[in-house]
Amino acid sequence: MTSAIAVRDLPVAVIGGGFSGTLLAINLLRYGVKVILIERSSAQLAKGVAFGTRRPEHLLNVRASNMSAFPDDAGHFLRWMHFSDADEANRFVPRLSYGTYLRELLVQALAKAGKDARIVDGEACAIERVDSHARVKLANGSILPCRAAVLALGNFPPLPHPVLEGLPSHLYQADPWDRTALEGLAELEEVMVVGSGLTAADVVLSLEASGFRGRVTVLSRRGLKPLPHAERGPVVTPIPDPELRGTALVRDVRRRAAEVGWRSAVDALRPHTQNIWRRHSAEGQATFLRHLRPYWDVHRHRLSPTVAARLTELEEKGRLRYLAGKLCDAQAIDQRVRISYRPRGADRQEAVIVDRVFNCAGPDGNLHRLATPLLRHLLDAGRIRSDAHGLGVDVDHLSRVRDRKGNPQDDLLAVGPITKGEAWEIVAVPDIRRQVWNLARFLADEHWVGGEGL
């Protein structure tokens, strides 16, 4: 049996080398914790999907001033970019630049850690508890002993749409991030994008940059589109953590928006959003998801002013339009697709003929539908379960994964967007960097410092 001291000397295995996993590994190494970082796609290491884009038109949706990788060093990214004045701090830089920043941070951390850090190119397919420690099995048969394993799997693949699944692959792009998604577009007349969030905005810009000169129709249930950031960051007056809940909280936010502007009112909630979510019951959270989530998303997750201006220009030229309605049917006809949808508030159906369809409906959170070997193993073993709303993996406030019976596990943890059910706001850099920093301190027993814990 492995002794307690020997277990303490084992590394933490971080499964997933995108933003969440990379930043967790860097923070663990900062606190002297040994790390194995496991990533199945070397091209995504230290970047993930979001920052692994090669397209310069994909900009960050957060100002440079708030993109430091470290919550205890707010100006780190600005210094790395050699930005010095307020105008530069307000810039929305290309995401590929941020990917370079992350990779450089990882290389520096690895160089400093020496033999205490290891990068493994492979796919984790099982996590087992053995005596007092854990071990990760890879698809190639390798076994990696560790004191704990952390799932840092990033966003899951796009939510499948049952109406579109029967379309042939050359007419339907189920994953907009597939590197072949933008091939053969120059001669097309019209494409449809299903979903109207930030991913849809990326796809519209990439279509334009790839030579597409037709029209893009964006279809979503409510026809909403992300709102833009202000050119300069709004002045936000800190507010106490709101105690109001439900409709009373919504009324209060609307009141403040009328006084200080909607951007300032929403941004003032940011330090408290996760606590607000946690204070609501599962029923209250479900009500928010059902009725308010789309409106929250367009106000909270905004576009850079440059991107918003370009989309507006395309709309004014008639090359981009937004439709509100329910997708009812999709039929392949003569190398095109006939889309039938019911406009919002109407009883009749209308049809649109397009050349290609892109699924931008957002990530799938159904663990049972995600057929990766690791998730199948963990589900079958009863070591993970879905959160109450099917958004991802159920965890507690310390990021410990709950097993089938709801018990948190000290040797299996999770970070990033897959923990949305516990934290709700955990998809943007400012939120994830705080989460992984806290977890690194927890695993290093540094969370007792600074008046916390004892």
TrEMBL record:
<dbReference type="InterPro" id="IPR036188">
    <property type="entry name" value="FAD/NAD-bd_sf"/>
</dbReference>
<dbReference type="InterPro" id="IPR038732">
    <property type="entry name" value="HpyO/CreE_NAD-binding"/>
</dbReference>
<dbReference type="Pfam" id="PF13454">
    <property type="entry name" value="NAD_binding_9"/>
</dbReference>
<protein>
    <submittedName>
        <fullName>Uncharacterized NAD(P)/FAD-binding protein YdhS</fullName>
    </submittedName>
</protein>
<dbReference type="InterPro" id="IPR052189">
    <property type="entry name" value="L-asp_N-monooxygenase_NS-form"/>
</dbReference>
<feature type="domain" description="FAD-dependent urate hydroxylase HpyO/Asp monooxygenase CreE-like FAD/NAD(P)-binding">
    <location>
        <begin position="13"/>
        <end position="155"/>
    </location>
</feature>
